[in-house]
# Entry
Amino acid sequence: MNRSVLFDTETTGLEPLNGDRVLEIAALELVNDLPTGRHFHCLIDPQRDIPTEASRVHGFTSADVAGKPLFADIAADLLAFLGDGKLIAHNAPFDFGFLDMEFSRVGMPLLARERMVDTLDLAKKRFPGMPNSLDALCRRFDIDLSARTTHNALLDCRLLAEVYVELTGGRQRGLSLATDEQAGPITVYVHTGPRTPRLMEPTEAELAAHAAFLARIKEPIWAME
# Structure
């Protein structure tokens, strides 16, 4: 079993070294790069104010996180969920930097950089010179963005999981619906094991049409024996 975790954070700002903190963390379990349905999600009291400009991005105010657990309260459970496999995020160095800061505050080990998979880096290599934000990738892969009015970490993880499947090999068949109290119905992938090629068998009519097409070409190099 190839287990990895895809995750996202929302924060009070952009600079962990200048006192910005994590206020939301969401993570999805993947097996063979497909979501299993298991997830970790928590709002966190960042122990500081949330600037107005940050609230405009993710929609959270100080009142929303008042009384929520501190990072120290959830750190052990989060570290256990992250496990020891690949850790996938969009603009991963940003999220790694914030979690490193939070784990260091509570005396816990930092995340090994060799575990990092950055979907932004994957997207830039596949689509050089093009917009590669999560919104842009969802639109490019025809993934429904209607529920994404703010940067909710759990919803962003589920959208990124669909993007990640596209970036690493294409969408799989066999979908089911799961619900989330905050985000409503969300389509998730059903894990059925490693991805394998599917044999495509042409019909008799298709074979006949192919033969007729080849008959009009002088010495076709791909003629079937």
Remarks:
- The CA atoms of residues 11 and 22 lie 4 Å apart.
- Residues 172-192 have pLDDT under 50 and may be disordered.
- The beta strands are 3-11, 22-31, 34-43, 86-89, 116-118, 175-180, 184-189.
